[in-house]
Specification:
single chain; six-stranded parallel beta sheet; about 45% helix; about 220 residues; alpha/beta; 6 strands; about 15% strand; 8 helices; Rossmann fold
Length: about 220
């Protein structure tokens, strides 16, 4: 596996259940030849009948952190496929990456609650991205959504959960270029045209104080 970036990058996510984080994670890892570490895949590998108990969550988190450290230390980029809805969790993983001299990119996947709930309440295992996911009822969805600590004073790339992967990727690649993290020049074809840059810049004006980037 060859790193297409100039140094290891840890991609992390925050967003509502059903915003499309797993789909984006898989596609992004494939495009950048990064390691995809999925909380749900690990959970279903370790537990025959997951209960999502605090103890179980602790085991899954420990495995994810251990794997992430090993891959980053080996010089590989990692797509950390779990929603880091708490600021403390985002700080923890960012500190780990920093100690290993890896860059962290937080991707904030946004979508309206109605669409998100429609997705998570009708998940089908026939969809490869839902293979390890579980359906959520309205109360569970609301409980999770209520406790999400959205980025405020954090640098984040915002993508729409309704956009195609091509559109989402353009926003991510653009930020990677800004940070001078692109090693593989072939990725430049995914950058939006200058007109799109201007449109993005206009949209960003209302979010500058929040250190958020729109895509």
């Amino acid at each position: 596996m060859k790193n297409k970036l100039s140094r290891p990058v840890l991609f992390t996510f925050v967003g509502l259940p059903g915003s499309g984080k797993t789909f984006l994670s898989r596609q992004l890892a494939d495009k950048l030849e990064a390691v995809h570490i999925s909380a749900e895949e690990i959970r279903f590998e370790l537990f025959e009948k997951p209960t999502f108990s605090p103890e179980e969550e602790g085991v899954v988190k420990h495995m994810m952190l251990m794997m992430t450290e090993r891959f980053l230390n080996a010089g590989l980029s990692v797509v950390y496929d779990v929603s880091l809805n708490k600021l403390a969790d985002r700080r923890e993983i960012k500190n780990i990456a920093s100690k290993l001299k890896a860059e962290t990119m937080l991707i904030w996947q946004q979508i309206d609650p109605q669409t998100a709930f429609s997705r998570v309440s009708s998940r089908s295992e026939k969809n490869s991205d839902n293979k390890f996911a579980v359906r959520l009822d309205k109360d569970t969805f609301k409980e999770i959504s209520t406790h999400i600590q959205t980025p405020t004073n954090e640098e984040a790339v915002v993508v729409s959960g309704k956009h195609s992967f091509t559109g989402q990727l353009a926003s991510i690649i653009r930020r990677l270029f800004e940070l001078q993290l692109i090693e593989d020049r072939s990725l430049s074809k995914h950058l939006p045209n200058p007109g799109m840059f201007n449109l993005i810049a206009q949209t960003q004006t209302n979010l500058q104080r929040r250190n958020v980037r729109i895509g």
